[in-house]
Each structure stands twice: as C-alpha cells, then as structure tokens.
Amino acid sequence: MCSQEVSVTIEKDIYDYAQTILSGQSVHNIENFNHPLCQRDVVDFVIIQKAIKLGGLDLTFKFELGNYDARNIRLLLDGLLLVSFDTIWYQQLSKHTDKLYISDPIIRKGEYVTGIYTSPNNINDLKRKISNDLSNVSIVSSRAWYTDWQTLKALKPKSLEDEADWIVMAKMVSRGWIDGMLVSFNNQSPFQYSGHDYFIEAVPDIKIPLQDSRHFAVSRSHPLAEQTFKALQIGIKKLRSQGFIKRAYQQCGFFNEMVKDWRAIIPQNTPE
Length: 272
Hints:
- This is Solute-binding protein family 3/N-terminal domain-containing protein.
- It comes from Pseudoalteromonas caenipelagi.
- Helix content is 32%, strand content 23%.
- It has 272 residues and is of the alpha/beta class.
- It has 2 domains: 153 residues, 3-Layer(aba) Sandwich (D-Maltodextrin-Binding Protein, domain 2); 99 residues, D-Maltodextrin-Binding Protein, domain 2 (3-Layer(aba) Sandwich).
- The strands form 5 sheets. Strands 5, 8, 9, 10 and 13 form a 5-stranded mixed β-sheet that branches. A two-stranded parallel sheet has the order 1-2.
- α6 links the parallel β6 and β7.
- α2 crosses α8.
- The longest helix has 18 residues.
- It is globular and about 60 Å long.
- The N and C termini lie far apart (44 Å).
C-alpha cells in the first residue's frame, strides 16, 4: 500500500530545531533527546509521527512552515488540517468534541510545569518582586494558549500582553520591554533559551504548574480522520507502555527533577 501524503502545519523554529536534533536520521529511529535545542514542542513533533506509524498507518507528511499556533484549532475544525503536530490543552479541545477526535493525554494533568523567564539582567529584581502572585510584574503570553492565559489571568500580573509569536515574546522580554513570560524547562543549567536577538533565563526557585492535560487532535471532517485517530491511539498506548513518552520529555528537560523543590506559585482559581 502506497503512503498517502498529508499537509500539516508546524512552527518554523520547531521544525528547524527538530531537523538539527534528528541530524539526518529518521524521526522513527530517534531515541535520544538530550540536545541543547530540544524542547517540549520537538518531542511532540516526534511522538505524533512515531505513534501514527506504530499504529499501522503509513502517511507521508508535507510540512507547511509558519506561525500557526493561533490558527491550528480553526484549521482542524474546518477540516483543512488532519492532525495537530503540537499537543493542545484539553480545556481548549473539549469545547469541540463534535468536530475533533481527542487523543489520550500525552502530557497528563499535573505534569506541565513552567518557569518564569526574563532577561538575565532582570533576574534578581524579578525574584524580589514575585510573591504569591504576579501583581508586581508584567507578563507576555498568547490568548491562543488557553491554560497559560487563564492561569496568568488568575495570578493577576501588573499587565498581561497578548502576542501570537513566541520569538517576538522572547525578544520583548530579552529587551526588558516586558518583565517575563512562562516557558517550560529544558536540559540546560541554568535554564536558558537563546536565538537571533533574544536571550532569556528562568528566575531560579520559582515555578508555575499549569493544571491541565495536553492532547493531539484529529479533525473529524478530514477524509483520513477515522483511520488516523485509530492508529494514533494504538501508537500512543505502545509508546506509553515502552516508557518512550516519559523518557523523551525527561531527556529534553521538560520533566525536570531539578525544579522538584522550587516554590510553586498556584492561583486560587485555575481552569478545571
């Protein structure tokens, strides 16, 4: 049976990181995610492809690169996108069960923990300003990131700016225009992210858990919907039982023992 070609959307920076980490090897063969460019989105990118293949469906993906975070849900609902290559918050997906198949959780509730990242020059000042909420600091995030946004609103920052592009956020924070942003942890110490014209670092000893699970979504109205969802679910169960999912997130630093004893800032009212 010939492999079917399917177009999928992916953030350009994540695709580029993934290609660097893969270094020419097949996405189905990678086992080691201990790379300085690795992050949660890259692991998602690998898991979705491995799961579908393990589930018995042979698809060839044609990648459309761009800034799709805010548009992917609409593309899925309209049947223009078969499957999300980035996991999505359950609270966001649960509103659309009539139009979307929702996979088993990839990141289970309670597993997603973020740091507050800022300019290295601002770390000590920001650490002093953060108490039991974020009322003394300005934060940038995206309304498209449902649970991030709801959690931040509940933590009452001095200001909360909406920006769709992650790299633009990082530049705003790096330049000191905004105090901080929520970013997951990686396998570097200290925890840092850098790129063209930005450098951000986690404020030490402070973490913010995001109380929701993350899943892949398949558009019910796409011609390949049923077989893709069936294969995806089979593959996820195999990867979970093999320990691949936990191991990959641990290696990239997303599941991180180093922050186990950091102080958690938890809002009184978070999404249920």
